[in-house]
Amino acid sequence: MFRITVYQLRKILAVGAIALAAFVVTAPAQAQSPGPYVSGALGVTQPSDWDITGGTVNTKQESDPGFAGAIALGTTFSDNWRAEGELSYSNANVDSFSGTNGSGETSMFGLMFNGLYDFKTNSRWTPYIGAGIGAAVIKASDLSPVGGSRISKSDQVFAYQGIAGVSYKIDDQLGLFTEYRYVGTADRDLRTDSGIDVESDSGEHRIMVGLRWSFGAPKPMAKAEPKPIPVQAPAPKPVAKPAPEAPRNYLVFFDWDKADLTADAKAIIQAAAGNSKTMTVTRIETTGHADRSGTDAYNLRLSKRRAEAVMGELTRLGIPANEVVVRWKGEREPLVQTPDGAREPQNRRVEIILSK
Fold it and tell me: Which CATH class for the 6-214 domain?
């Protein structure tokens, strides 16, 4: 029979808490992470039948469906992976003991550390699976009849759960989700009012619906400051105009959902490479962008591939790789403002800047 000591249980919870804190602190520093989130959910629970055994007691407890609730604090730390700490509570009334009408209720208060994997679909829908470990305090209140007596006792035990669900993106910060959970625990020790020590297993099937709020959505673009009113200055004396300098900024556009260079794109890159050799240039910056027709994470990767494609063409034209800086912004800095999901050709671009 699997059991866990209080010392081991506290050690598991401490390690899980430290790991979760590390994820929350470090995630915002990663370019692909939307950052931390909070969630809350309500639902129904169906406890599994309890086999209560010990001494002269051997009975099976059946329960009615009850309610469950949970809150969580977590973070997304890659395109697919999430980690969270969760507090949950459930409660259900007893239906019978080995076919005989019973009374009483059971409740479970749990603290879990969960790992979850999101399956990206390039749409607003995201299926996911997960698992968690932690601890649970299970309380039995006035369970009767149990071996001619009753049970009113609580026990702290090791707990685990499996999760499968799907979420729907309402906007950049708010999402709706529904999920199934199976919550299981190690056997717990109970005692009847007549002094008989018994053991019991436990588990719960839960269906939950909730909301998830992300704090890491892209920040809105800063409003442009009003331009100052020009003051009429005296006309300057005519002077000889210097020869115009070659442009330092270039835009390379891409087809939808592509990172391949067109003939026009290659011509622009060739002009930028040629001009960089005739002026003072310390580095060449290439910054990739995407429109809003895909998910944030997908567009971030697509903009990276576009910037890397431009860098590859520059190096092929003789520009040293150590003079080229590659950046990518995804859909965060559009040239043309559009609603989510819109395909805008001018936003599918790479900006080339010849820096002094």
Answer: mainly beta
